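Dear colleague,

Following up on Tuesday's group meeting, I ran the structure prediction for the two-component complex that the binding team flagged. I've pasted the input sequences exactly as they went in, so you can double-check that nothing got truncated or mislabelled along the way. The structure tokens for the whole assembly follow below. Feel free to forward this to whoever is handling the docking comparison.

Inputs:
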Amino acid sequence: MADAIKALVVAEHDNAGVRPATLNTVAAATQLGGEVHVLVAGSGAGGAATSAAAVAGVTKVLHADGEQFAHGGAESMAAQVLALASGYTHILFAATASGKNIAPRVAAKLDVGQISDITKIDSPDVFERPIYAGNAIATVQSLDAVKVITVRTTGFDPAAATGGSAAVETLSAVADPGKSTFMGSEIAKNDRPELTSAKIIVSGGRALGSSEKFNEVLTPLADKLGAALGASRAAVDAGYAPNDWQVGQTGKIVAPQLYVAIGISGAIQHLAGMKDSKVIVAINKDAEAPIFSVADYGLEQDLFTAVPDFVAAL
Amino acid sequence: MKVLVPVKRVVDYNVKVRVKSDGSGVDIANVKMSMNPFDEIAIEEAVRLKEKGIATEVIAVSCGVQQCQETLRTAMAIGADRAILVQCDDELQPLAVAKLLKALVDKEQPGLVILGKQAIDDDCNQTGQMLAALADMPQATFASKVEVADGFATVTREVDGGAETLKIKLPAVVTTDLRLNEPRYVTLPNIMKAKKKQMDIFKPSDLGVDVKSHLKTLKVSEPPKRGAGVKVPDVATLVAKLKTEAKVI
């Protein structure tokens, strides 16, 4: 008889509270059918620990606090996870920039394979994950005693943020390995929803033609819809939109209720990032654009007239 | 300072792969193979470090089948000085590759290892971080800018919501994101020169590495198909359908 399942979710948080991706990851951990603990490692992260304890399905929160966790550095975070790892059968991270950065360090130190970007749990050791930009789905079985997993957040509906009442246990923080120094960050501040958890996304492609037009045409629509803004790789490469707006195989994977693709042709790498959206709208004057093959509603029109009309009609 | 650049041979990014009807994998027979695009960016960055006089030697490494020699020749045509192939016909998963690279790091003692953030076939995004852990080196993943000076690398990383900058002590591992650079075109004279450059070939056993699999692929299937919907004639119809039919606005 195998050991009882015990899952550790490594929380993503901003010290005040857990980020939405953590809720999806807890939801995946809950499906494994055992206890679900959440590690909150941060700097002044008491608020995040409290919010993690309230998440439905969480049975215990482990809170480690220290300056070395202030910026979520991979070396410190992995060391903290490894200090706890022996008690767990599953260690789960969200497949975000942060989770992808830390998880493989943990797996390698445990001498286990990592199962990246899972979209479905078939059993506690069998998982489904997309490969080749989502053009194939692999069903894989882990042969290791401990499963280190990153969870594609769009594959799991989020756990309820309230309703749980887990105990919070304080841990001593492991020492900083001291080989990496955080120098600064440029995080764009705006009132828009986060791209990966937005209900509506307005996304633009190279047909916008310039950074000015990208903003001038898409911002009013995003404002009207309360949407996040995204972009195709072509638009990002051309400098029309910031790097972290890129939706696609190697950018953000999104699955909003409504995805509005404007002037995006629909390369397979882009489709890989958004084809699980509930409703897809494509606006493109090229009737042959591959984006129309996945769009629920296609409007074959020049975007520079269609989008202002769209804004006016809302 | 030596720079080690691991490169992977993958199905070309323009190829839309087909799942085999028996569910055993994807059909890669007679399909165009290329260097993983992120690794090409890594080679370019390493060669630029050499051109700036920061790197003294750029060593390209590939782990896989014999045909990876072609990928390594491309790396040398871009500007790598020599190449190492760890030849193995068995499937190599990221942890096995990281162990092979760790053995080569011990042997070559590079100041920097720079490689792609993910391979576009298995989309794992693991190898660089695993190597960093095994070699006990700091890491800077998803790099959009790399500067090396005085025993440190200052790396701007693409993170959710923007960018952050880390200063890491060398030796270190850097993984590349798309906007780090634009790889140069390979010229014919450089292809000819690359043919004469040194390539050493090892087996995993020569490096004392066990390359066993940690994941077993049970089946590979087609993703659920998303059918095309309808074309709408005008914006008014679109808005009406989104409100009353799809009910998303």
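Chain B has six helices and 15 strands.

Cheers,
M.
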